[in-house]
Amino acid sequence: MSRTALRICPLCEATCGLTLTIEGTTVTGARGDREDVFSKGFICPKGASFAAVDGDPDRLRAPLLRVDGELREVSWQEAFDAVAARIRPVVERHGPHSVGIVLGNPNVHTMAGALYPPVLIAGLGTRSLFTASTVDQMPKHVSSGLLYGDANAIPVPDLDRTDHLLLIGANPLESNGSLCTAPDFPGRLKALRARGGTLTVVDPRRTRTAALADRHLAIRPGTDALLLAAMAHALFEEDLADPGELAPHLHGLDELRHALRDFTPEAVAVACDVEAPLIRILARELAAAPTAAVYGRIGSCTVAHGTLASWLVDVLNILTGNLDRPGGALFPQAATDRTPRPAGPGRGFRLGRWHSRVGRHPEAKGELPLSALAEEIDTATEEGEPIRALVVVAANPVLSAPDGDRLDKALDSLDFMVSVDPYLNETSRHADVVLPPPPPAQSPHHDFAFNTLAIRNQVRYTRPAVPLEPGRMAETEILARLTLAATGMHGADPTAVDALVVEQTLGKAVRDEHSPVHGRAPEDLAAQLTGDTGPERRLDMMLRLGPYGDGFGARPDGLSLERLLAHPHGIDLGPLRPRLPQPLKTPSGRVELLPAPIADDLPRLRRALDAPPAELLLVGRRHLRSNNSWLHNIPALTGGSNRCTLHIHPADAERLGVRDGAPVRVRGAGGEVTAPAEVTDTVRPGVVSLPHGWGHDRPGTRLRHAATEPGVNVNQLLDGRALDPLSGNAVLNGVPVELTATPAATGSYEGN
Ligand SMILES: Nc1nc2c(c(=O)[nH]1)N[C@H]1C(S)=C(S)[C@@H](COP(=O)(O)OP(=O)(O)OC[C@H]3O[C@@H](n4cnc5c(=O)[nH]c(N)nc54)[C@H](O)[C@@H]3O)O[C@H]1N2
Ligand SMILES: Nc1nc2c(c(=O)[nH]1)N[C@H]1C(S)=C(S)[C@@H](COP(=O)(O)OP(=O)(O)OC[C@H]3O[C@@H](n4cnc5c(=O)[nH]c(N)nc54)[C@H](O)[C@@H]3O)O[C@H]1N2
Ligand code: SF4
Ligand SMILES: [Mo]
After folding, report:
1. CATH homologous superfamily for 138-335+582-606?
2. Substitution candidate for ligand 2 out of 203, 308, 625, 690 with most atoms within 8 A of CB
C-alpha cells in the first residue's frame, strides 16, 4: 500500500516542500507540495529525483573501519571505539589544533550539521577549522561582519517586490538561488519582468538567467569589484547617492566617496570590458528605480576581489536607499534566530584573531581557508604541529577545493581520519573510519541556515518520512557520539550533548534581561520542552526563545514545536520587514561604510586597473541537475547537457585550433586536465568554462555510475595560492589558463 509523507528538499538552498510517495519503507516518487506555505508546489528535476537520490544502491549501509589497509564493515560500537582510541592520543600528544575539522556543504542541509559541529569544535578547542564557506561565500560574511558587525547579517534581495534587480555572477535558473532562499527563483524572475520590473545580469557567460534579462553584460571575469566601484563613483559624481531614511544609521559616507575617487567609469572600462557610458546608465537605472536590489553570488565571491565586490553590492544598495526597505535588500528574521536585543552598539567583527600556521592566512569567522588544508597537513613549521587527525563531515575537498592531487597525498599521510559521509568517494576513501548517515527520507529536516536567508519569513519542519532502517543511526546521533568520542567522553549517552546545550542556552536566556524568560528557572523551562528526540527538543527550545516564540508561556500565541507540528506545510511569518538599526552590532551602532580592512584593500583593487588581462580566463558553471560533487552517481541526474566539457567561444576555438568535441588540454598553476571542447558563443571571447565536482576516476571509491563518465577535476588547475586576502576565499573564477588542442582530434572523449 502506498502512502505519502512531506519532506523538505535538502538538495539546494530553495528548500522546496516535497510530497513523497512511499511504498512500505521505500520512497518511490516525489512531487511538489502545493500546500507548502513557501514553495507552493514548485519542484525541479533534482527534487523530482528524490527517490533515486534516497535509494542509491551505492550509499553505504554500515560503518567502515580500516583494518590492514582495507575498509571493512563493522558495528557502530567498533567504529566509535576506533574514533575515540585514535583521536584522543593525537590531541593529548600534539594539542587540539593538530585535529582538523572539515565541514562541507550538506551540513547546511541537515539538522545534524546545524546542531552538532559547533559543540564538536568547542569541545575539541581546535583552531584548525575548514569549511566549504572559503570556497564559496566567506567574502560576503566578511563584508557583512565589517559593515554591520555581524558576519551572518546578510541582506537578501526582495525578489517578489523589487522593481529592478541587478544580478551579479549568479545563475539561479541552474542553481535555484544561493544566499537568497527562494523556491521557484526562475518563476519569481519572470514575475518581476511581467510586473514591469527590469532584470540586469552581469556574467561572462550568456546563461539561461542572462537570457531572461532585459540587459546582459558579459563582463571580463574577476572585474566586478571595479564595475561596482565605478557605479558607486558615478552615483556620487552625478549626485544620485541618496541613502534616504538610512542616513542616520550610516557612518563614513564622505570617506567612502573619497575612497572611490579613482574608480571612474572611464578608468575601469578597459579592465572590465564594459563601456563607460553603459556603467553610468547602470548606475542611473539603479538610482531611478522606485525600488532596486543588487545581488551578487558565486561569480562575485570566488574571485580575487571577492570581499570588495561583496561589500560594493551592499554599498550600492545603501547609496540608493534600497537597503532595509521593501523592494530592496532586507535582513530576514528567522524563527530560530535569537530574540532580537534592542538596538545599540555591539562588539563588532574582527578578522585575523589567529593565523594559519604555514601560509599565515588570517582566520575569518573562526575558519582557515580550505585552500590551505593540504599545506596545514603536509608542511612542518616551527610555528606548531601540523594537522595529524582529521574529522570530515559531509565534505569532498579532494574535488571541491584547489589541488586535489596534493590533498589526496596529504590525507594519506594523516595518523587518523574519520568521514561522516554516505558515500565512499574521492575524499572518504582516505578515511580510517567512515560513518554513513541514513538517506534523507529517514532524517528530520529544518532549515536553520536558509531561513535566515529566505525572501519570506516562514518556518517549516518535517519529521523523518520513513523510520530508520535496522542497523542505521540518525546523523544527529552519529555526530553526537562522534563529538563525545573525540572530546574524551566516549561512551556517554549521546543525549548528554543535547542536554548540555539546552542547559547552557536556557541558563544564558534566563540571565538576559531582554529575553522573554528572564528570571525564570532553567530547569522548569527544560522540563517544558517537547519533542521525541534531543534535536527536536533543541528545535523546540530555539523556536520558543526566538522572535516569534511562545517564550515558554510568556506569549501564548507564539511558536513552539507543538504548534509547528500542527502545521505540516509550514507557517508563513510574512514578508521581510525593515529592521535597522536593530541588527547592527558594530561598536558605533551604525553601518560602517568604509571599514579599515576594506579601505586597506582598495589599493590592490586600484592596481588591478593597470594589470594586463590574461589571454584566457577560466570560469565555472553549474547544471540544473547537478549538486557540487555528489549527484553524479544518480543516472537520472546525469547525461544530456550535464557533462564535463570545456565551453569555448568560436573565435577562441578557431584561433587555437580547437574543434568541437575534440579533447583540449587545459593548463593552470596547479596542474592540467584534458576535457572535450564544446564550442559555444554562450561564453564570451577570452573565457572558457568547466564545471566543478567532476573527476570520479580515482581508485578505491564506490560510485559506480559516476565512474562511467568521470569527467575531470577543474580544481586541479588551481594550486591553492590564489585567495581573496581578506576572507581567505579561494579564487575559483577568473583563473588564467592555457589551452592546447590535442593532436588526436578524434571527436571522442578520452578523459585525462
Ligand atoms: N571550481 C569550483 N569549485 C567549487 C565551486 C565552484 O563553483 N567552482 N563551488 C564551491 C562551493 S559553492 C561549494 S559549497 C563547495 C562544495 O564542496 P563540498 O562541501 O566539499 O562538496 P560536496 O560536493 O557538496 O560534497 C558533499 C559531501 O557530503 C556528502 N553528503 C551528501 N549528503 C550528506 C548528508 O546528508 N550527510 C553527510 N554527512 N554527508 C552528505 C557527499 O557524499 C559528499 O561527500 O564546492 C566548491 N568548489
Ligand atoms: N544545480 C545546482 N544547483 C546548485 C549547486 C550545484 O552544484 N548545482 N550548488 C549549490 C551551491 S553550493 C551554491 S554556492 C549555489 C551557487 O549559486 P550561483 O552563484 O547562482 O551558481 P553558479 O551557477 O555557479 O553561478 C555563478 C555564475 O557566475 C558566473 N561568473 C564566473 N565568474 C564571474 C565573474 O568574474 N563575474 C561575474 N559577474 N560572473 C562570473 C558564472 O559564469 C556563473 O554563471 O548553487 C547551489 N545550487
Ligand atoms: S529547487 Fe532545490 S530545493 Fe527545490 S526541488 Fe529543486 S533541488 Fe530541491
Ligand atoms: Mo556553495
Report:
1. Dimethylsulfoxide Reductase, domain 2 (3.40.228.10)
2. 203
